[in-house]
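Field log, afternoon session.

UNIT: design team B
ACTIVITY: writing a sequence onto a fixed backbone
BACKBONE:
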């Protein structure tokens, strides 16, 4: 069963931690996701993964309030995007993880859905630093890697997966009211190989050919595809959490 930390008094949190509950920390960003999706996309998806994985785990879970700000330089040219320096983002995340561990949790899963490469480096480094400080084990499920990544589709692997069919499908499955359907209907496909451009040195979405902060094909998104993608994300997250128990 999943419990939301923001709704609990501290004695209940202590009780759950002592009973072996797994702490879940959703991590996302506040950044532009096209004209049809809100700034909170990464957070909404991370929280939904937490909810769905909790239903599959044999232990209680406690979902802590999400980390909503981090490094997001690629979307920096767009209004509403808030990007932190890497060292600031890492220090904040280390502090949050150490605070959760201090509350008695033996296992913490960092459920991240902000895919900017430099941000993911921050997440892994913060988890390593927090785990080294002890006593909690900290796991970072990374769905970019095999076998999960290729199963998430061609757009995810080579199209950038930013506000296109991949993320729009997930949002249609998790929070359809937050998808602006009128704006989505007006968007043509933008088939850009974002990972390749990043490797080639592009520094932001404008340089990558995304003047409206989206890539891929939002119009092809469906809730059914979103639920399929969530099944894969949850499977990868569950496997990492279960492995952390051994």
């Amino acid at each position: 069963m999943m419990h939301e930390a923001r709704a609990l008094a501290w004695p209940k949190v202590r009780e759950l931690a002592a009973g072996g509950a797994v702490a879940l920390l959703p991590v996302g960003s506040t950044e532009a996701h096209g004209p049809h999706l809100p700034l909170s996309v990464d957070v909404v998806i991370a929280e939904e993964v937490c909810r769905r994985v909790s239903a599959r785990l044999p232990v209680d879970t406690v979902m802590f309030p999400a980390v909503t700000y981090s490094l997001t330089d690629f979307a920096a040219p767009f209004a509403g995007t808030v990007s932190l320096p890497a060292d600031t983002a890492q220090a904040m995340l280390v502090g949050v993880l150490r605070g959760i561990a201090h509350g008695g949790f033996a296992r913490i899963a960092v459920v991240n859905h902000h895919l900017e490469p430099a941000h993911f480096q921050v997440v892994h480094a913060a988890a390593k630093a927090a785990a080294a400080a002890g006593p909690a084990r900290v796991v970072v499920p990374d769905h970019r890697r095999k076998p999960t990544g290729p199963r998430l589709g061609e757009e995810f692997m080579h199209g950038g997966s930013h506000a296109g069919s991949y993320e729009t499908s997930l949002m249609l499955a998790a929070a359809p009211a937050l998808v602006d359907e009128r704006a989505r209907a007006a968007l043509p496909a933008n088939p850009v190989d974002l990972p390749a451009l990043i490797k080639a040195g592009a520094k932001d979405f404008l340089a990558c050919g995304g003047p409206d902060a989206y890539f891929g094909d939002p119009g092809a998104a469906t809730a059914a595809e979103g639920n399929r993608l969530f099944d894969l994300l949850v499977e990868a997250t569950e496997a990492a959490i279960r492995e952390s128990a051994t």
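LOG NOTE: The CA atoms of residues 30 and 181 lie 21 Å apart.
NEXT ACTIVITY: expression trials, pending approval
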